[in-house]
Amino acid sequence: MNIDKYPELKPGKKYIKRYYVAIMLWIVGRAIQAACRLDKEVIKEFSELPEKFTFSLGVLPDGPFMIIGKDDKGRAKYMGWNKGRTRFPLEMNIKSLEAAIKVFTFQEGTATAFARERFIVDGDLGYALAVVRVLNIIEVYLLPKIITKLAVKRYPRWSEFSPLRKWVNRILIYIRAFTF
């Protein structure tokens, strides 16, 4: 058998999936920044994180990434997507683009993805859980209820009892995420 007859096949680049995940990370990053100025639960989660805290959420091996840090006032700030060679106190990475597609098309919730070991966390696990709680709140604001119930472990009770808070904050988060 001659091995030269069978050349190695390389997989495609999956550009559409990569662009979709990059856009979703951008939207989520900007929404976290906006929610940290509006929602008391997001503000509380970020206030409990250390000063100058920065984390990245991305897809291995080559990205895309989302970088969020605390500014001088203790609020979240979306810092872009270019991670470079910088190390962060908390790095949360999704193992593959296919796993990221499952998470960002809401076929699988964040908690389920953690349980199925689709995430790699490098840093303090307590900080990672705080970030996951923030991501769940953001999903409640950004998505319709029927999709959110698939994406989060428990739908928050405050959104059922306070529809005014939910809808006003949802509109403001969308406006601030796309304009600031």
- State the major sheet: 5 strands, mixed
The CATH class, by name, is: Alpha Beta
Residue ranges: pLDDT <50 for 5 or more in a row?
Answer: none
User: What is the domain tally?
Assistant: 1
CATH fold naming = Nonspecific Lipid-transfer Protein, Chain A
| Overall spatial form | globular
Q: What structural class do you assign from the helix and strand content?
A: alpha+beta
The separation of the N and C termini measures 62 Å
Number of strands: 5
Average residue-wise pLDDT: 85
- Strand and helix order: HHEEEEHHEHHHH
Description:
With 180 residues, the chain is of the alpha+beta class. It has one domain: SCP2 sterol-binding domain (Nonspecific Lipid-transfer Protein, Chain A, 2-Layer Sandwich), CATH 3.30.1050. It is 49% helix and 13% strand. It is built from eight helices and five strands, in the order H-H-E-E-E-E-H-H-E-H-H-H-H. The protein has a five-stranded mixed β-sheet with strand order 3-2-1-4-5. Helix 1 (15-35) packs across helix 3 (97-104) and helix 2 (40-47) packs antiparallel against helix 5. It is globular, with a radius of gyration of 18 Å. The N and C termini lie far apart (62 Å).
Write the layout of secondary structure elements.
Layout: H1 15-35, H2 40-47, E1 54-59, E2 65-70, E3 76-78, E4 90-94, H3 97-104, H4 110-115, E5 119-122, H5 125-142, H6 145-151, H7 158-161, H8 163-179
